[in-house]
Amino acid sequence: MVRHFRGVAMKREDPLLDRLEIADLFEKYLSMLDDGSFCESNAGDIFTPDAMFAFPSGTHQGLEGLDTFTDRFMGHWALTHHIVGHCRVDVGRDIATVTQSVLATHVHRDSPPPPKSGNHFQLGGRFDGTARRTAVGWRLCRLDFHVAWTVGVGVPTIAARMTQAHQ
């Protein structure tokens, strides 16, 4: 059986292709968060219907209600910019474990536009997840986000708001 990844024909269970396809899920997810296009209707392109999410702002299971869950941590910002590091993928036959490092910049809504210096904070962290091979390709079925460090304006205030929103 032949499948395609970005227009390139590959055999069905090519470990290198599997790794690329899984790593691409993270790139797609974070770029959609940054450009504001991530929503329940396109989440199935990245996640399984029963996906489990564990973030500092709380936990969520499934695609239904994912917009509300995502807004808990993304709704505070005028814009975000996520940069990812190396994606480690350990592929089994139909299940893979994934670790992805991320550096994220979050710009406050009251921040002045460039070239003025804006009000923002940054965080460094790591996604740990599990991907499952499905009939339509690999999809993430578990995603845990761990914050390693934060720096910048308003971190305690936003963290308090995120905690209150979760309760």
List the helices and strands and how they pair.
Blueprint: E1 2-5, E2 8-11, H1 15-35, H2 40-43, E3 47-55, E4 58-61, H3 66-74, E5 77-91, E6 95-108, E7 120-134, E8 137-152, H4 155-166
Tally of alpha and pi helices: 4
Number of E strands: 8
Q: What's the oligomerization state? A: single chain
Percent helix among the residues? 25-40%
What does the largest sheet look like?
Answer: 6 strands, mixed
Mean pLDDT: 87
Describe this structure in words.
- With 167 residues, this protein is an alpha+beta fold.
- The protein is built from four helices and eight strands, in the order ββααββαββββα.
- The strands form two sheets. A six-stranded mixed sheet has the order 4-3-8-7-6-5.
- β3 and β4 form a beta hairpin.
- The radius of gyration is 17 Å and the shape is globular.
Quick recap of the structure?
This protein has 167 residues and is an alpha+beta fold.
Primary descriptors:
167 residues; alpha+beta; six-stranded mixed sheet; two-stranded antiparallel sheet; 49% strand; globular
